[in-house]
Design a protein that fits this description.
Number of strands of chain B: 0
Radius of gyration of chain B: 21 Å
Helix content of chain B: 55-70%
Order of helices and strands of chain A: HEEEHHHHHEEHHHHHHEEEHHHH
CATH topology of chain A: Cytochrome-c3 Hydrogenase, chain B
Helix content of chain A: 40-55%
Radius of gyration of chain A: 22 Å
CATH superfamily of chain A: Cytochrome-c3 Hydrogenase, chain B
Number of domains of chain B: 1
Oligomer: heterodimer
Shape of chain A: globular
Distance between the termini of chain A: 58 Å
CATH architecture of chain A: Orthogonal Bundle
Largest sheet of chain B: none
Mean pLDDT of chain B: 83
Largest interface: A-B, 31 and 30 residues
Mean pLDDT of chain A: 86
Structural class of chain A: alpha+beta
CATH class of chain A: Mainly Alpha
Low-confidence stretches of chain B: none
Order of helices and strands of chain B: HHHHHHHHHHHH
């Protein structure tokens, strides 16, 4: 026994694990270099850039309208808000007045897209925790939303629906009925998800008080969206810097209490309910009109100047900083995406937890990699 | 309905008279019977495993609002066979820095250990390969062999994810072995024997006299611990896909992977079969009036029901974390198992 214990070859040490870029739960191509001590994470370095497509540079070589389809690819789970953020920025730059009906349609579409995006979060998050079934359920509901989008603009993933000055086309007559049916059905389905997960003791054990995100860390890292709202901070661009017709609509901003994985989960569940209300309200308030897009010059040349405008995308603030020299192409475009800021908080809140928790924490941040790398 | 056990006994008696009349020692007949029993067991279990894989896919599909495999054969019954053939054709990759011998033997041990347990399981009345008088101890010992194979696979792969998976499984199976063994003791105390066949006979053909009722706690502990023993959700940490990619078998491909895969399903059937034997009256019908249905039908239907419950767990629950898993075994199940033994002992002392 002594010989074994004194054997210097028997030792424990920290070891490095390369998690990703190919790994089932890095949600794409994130690479995490983990320094592990057994199951415990002692250090964590995220490496980004595997999906870099230089979208910001491409913008400098496209006209303002030509760049719109590229915004679809920034956050492919929520293309509508990406479109809208670009449209809002250019409208502000060029001083374009958007028809009211277009604003209502934008609200309907972005709120539906918010639900679709949160559904992906919900499914993938439960998948990361080892529960496979909710993943299939959420994709079943998302399918309905995609059908609604397809009905409107013919696309299911990259919509290119919201254009500078308005939207590309009006909703078909049967859209309203289908949306109402979806919302009524979806409220019941949300109760089902909550029955599977919210009060499940195993789920609670895996999420309660795990990966607590202190508010100051969240602010320092530039986190936004449900990630910062989970830490009991009601920060939502729709209320803080209202755009579109949100001031006319009635909704609340759900917040969590301590900022753990469970709070970020429940915030998103409640946000889906709010989005249902918003989509319904916007549909009811839809003005009778045929004008869905402002008259634009054939070649859009905004006056020289710079603008930064932001909107509330499903993952948080999405903003475009655009510099114009009065030409038909932008001089410089910088995109502020929510996932980049949200990914920053991963290292500070994961160190000291186990590898199983890391997966849960990363899932709860709902980071999407094309948005991080752009 | 086929009285399988009686038919077999008749064939055996007939052969025996023929052997004696031809002057061949009867020991050859016994040897022949043993080989025959072994082949039958392996064939039946391989078929069971194939069926269970298909069944699991169907159950998961229906729970998830899907159809599952539908193309190969009616309702996709031949899907597993097709998958097996595909795995058989695949290149057998051994990582260049792997420990080749250990890497080779790990799936073999997993496979063999999974099958060896069946020697003592009574599939029907008189339908068992060997009636060991320490049957239950034998089953517990053999099923624990799995941990060695998982550890070997994890170590020999020379992969950190595989190693983490192997270590997790070693810790998990060794921990859950303790409450599992203790929960089995209750049934053994009630029956007063360790032979699985005699435990079944002691329960009798009345479902209210089976040991699930007096051993409700023991049954619950056994079933939870058994779920952990076979690495099923919520205790599937050794192969947690989202954390460790695939755990101990991440480097395995082709037929070696298939052996691990089939062993997992055979093990699942084993723990359900043992649970049926100990707590659900084994091959006994629930009431004597139903005895005309062959005993092996009762055994199979009870076991498959338990397998279904295991699958149901898997497609409903999330996964526990390593420390929660250990806490659950040592701080919750183990004390409960002791309480169960104490209560059972008290009951046996008072009522017998």
């Amino acid at each position: 026994m002594d010989r074994v214990l004194n054997n210097t070859e028997l030792r424990d040490e920290e070891f490095l694990i390369n998690m990703g870029p190919q790994h089932p739960s890095t949600h794409g191509v994130l690479r995490l270099v983990l320094k592990m001590e057994g199951e415990f994470i002692r250090d964590l370095v995220p490496h980004v850039g595997y999906l870099h497509r230089s979208i910001e540079k491409i913008a400098e070589n496209r006209t303002y309208n030509q760049f719109m389809p590229y915004t679809d690819r920034i956050d492919y789970c929520a293309s509508m808000p990406s479109n809208q953020a670009w449209a809002v920025a250019i409208e502000k730059l060029a001083g374009i007045e958007v028809p009211e009906k277009a604003e209502y349609l934008r609200v309907i579409m972005t709120e539906l897209n918010r639900i679709a995006s949160h559904l992906i979060y919900l499914g993938v998050m439960s998948l990361d925790l080892g529960a496979v079934t909710p993943f299939l359920y959420t994709f079943r509901e998302r399918e309905w939303i995609l059908d609604l989008f397809e009905m409107t603009c013919g696309q299911r993933l990259t919509y290119h629906y919201i254009r500078i000055g308005g939207v590309s086309r009006d909703i078909p007559p049967e859209f309203g009925k289908s949306l109402k049916a979806f919302v009524a059905d979806f409220r019941k389905k949300l109760d089902d998800y909550e029955a599977i997960l919210t009060e499940n003791p195993i789920f609670l054990g895996r999420t309660k008080n795990v990966g607590v995100l202190p508010l100051d860390v969240a602010k320092d890292c530039g986190a936004s969206g449900p990630t910062i709202r989970g830490s009991n901070f009601a920060w939502d661009i729709r209320k803080a810097e209202p755009y579109s017709v949100y001031p006319k609509l009635n909704f609340t901003i759900p917040t969590g209490k301590v900022g753990d994985v469970w709070d970020r989960y429940i915030v998103r569940i409640q946000e889906m309910r709010q989005s249902c209300n918003l989509a319904e309200q916007a549909l009811d308030g839809l003005p009778e009109s045929d004008v869905i897009r402002a008259k634009l010059p054939a070649v859009l040349k905004p006056p020289a100047g710079e603008v930064f405008s932001r909107i509330e995308a499903p993952r948080g603030e999405m903003g475009y900083y655009v510099v114009s020299t009065g030409d038909k192409k932008p001089y410089r475009v910088k995109i502020r995406t929510a996932s980049y800021g949200n990914l920053q908080v991963l290292a500070p809140i994961s160190i000291g937890w186990k590898i199983g928790d890391l997966v849960a924490i990363f899932g709860s941040l709902d980071v999407i990699l094309p948005e991080v790398d752009r | 309905m086929l009285e399988l056990d009686k038919a077999l006994l008749a064939i055996y008696a007939g052969l025996k008279t023929w052997f004696i009349s031809s002057g061949i020692p009867v020991i050859w007949l016994d040897l022949l019977v043993m080989i025959f029993a072994g082949i039958v067991l392996i064939a039946v279990l391989a078929l069971t495993a194939l069926f269970l894989v298909w069944w699991e896919r169907k159950i998961s599909a229906h729970i998830q609002d899907r159809l599952g495999p539908m193309r190969t054969g009616p309702h996709g019954v031949l899907q597993t066979l097709a998958d097996g053939l595909k795995l058989l054709q695949k290149e057998d990759i051994i990582p260049s820095k792997a420990d080749r011998k250990v890497f080779f033997w790990a799936p073999v041990i997993a496979f063999v250990a999974a099958f060896m347990a069946y020697i003592v399981i009574p599939f029907g009345k008189g339908l068992m390969a060997r009636d060991l008088n320490i049957g239950i101890v034998y089953v517990l010992a053999i099923t624990t062999f799995t941990v060695i194979s998982l550890l070997m696979a994890g170590w020999a792969s020379n992969n950190k994810y595989a190693l983490l998976g192997g270590m997790r499984s070693a810790a998990q199976i060794v921990s859950y072995e303790v409450p599992l063994t203790l929960s089995v003791l209750g049934a053994v105390m009630l029956a007063g024997t360790m032979s699985l066949n005699e435990i079944v006979e002691a329960q009798g053909p009345y479902f209210w006299r089976w040991y699930w009722l007096p051993q409700l706690l023991g049954f619950a502990i056994y079933f939870v611990a058994a779920t952990a023993e076979v690495n099923r959700t919520p205790f599937d940490l050794p192969e947690a896909e989202q954390e460790l990619v695939a755990g101990f078998n991440v480097e395995y491909s082709g037929m070696k992977f298939a052996m691990f895969f089939l062993a997992e399903f055979v093990n699942m059937f084993t723990v359900s079969a043992v649970a049926t034997t100990l707590f659900l009256g084994g091959w006994q019908p629930p009431i004597p009036g139903l005895a005309f249905i062959p005993s092996w039908v009762w055994f199979l239907s009870k076991t498959l029901f338990l397998v279904f419950v295991l699958m149901w767990f898997r497609w409903t629950y999330p996964r526990l974390r390593v420390d929660q898993l250990m806490d659950f075994a040592w701080k919750f199940l183990l004390p409960l198992a002791f309480i169960n033994i104490f209560l059972t002992g008290l009951g046996v002392y008072i009522f017998k």
